[in-house]
Amino acid sequence: MTEFIQFISEHLQMIYIVILMIFVGVEIIGHVPAVLHTPLMSGANAIHGVVVVGAILVMLGSSPDNILALSLGFVAVLLGTLNVIGGFVVTDRMLEMFKKKK
Q1: Same domain for 75 and 27?
Q2: Is residue 17 very low, low, confident or very high in pLDDT (cuts 50, 70, 90)?
Q3: Predicted structure pTM score
Q4: What is the 3 state secondary structure string of the chain?
Q5: Which domain range does residue 66 map to?
Q6: Vertex 63, ends 59 and 65: CA angle to 5°?
């Protein structure tokens, strides 16, 4: 417990910045018009693709004995891939709304 408190006290400014980023991000995303949702979703898909590649690289760099790192990396790859696929499905569905009906 003392190590946790020491970590918090040593990294207090970083924690404040992360909390501020969360509030600013929620405020910015809340005011995005619906028309811009599709381009933003495509950008988020690209970011999550980078997350998947990063998780794979971290898994490659970890030792085979480190079960925790490998399992967390696997979960990161799995969730990142699901997020990318879901984002593309939502983007495709939104783009279908703008096509002319036959």
Answers
A1: no
A2: very high
A3: 0.57
A4: CHHHHHHHHHCHHHHHHHHHHHHHHHHHHHCCCHHHHHHHHHHHHHHHHHHHHHHHHHHHHCCCCCHHHHHHHHHHHHHHHHHHHHHHHHHHHHHHHCCCCC
A5: 35-102
A6: 115
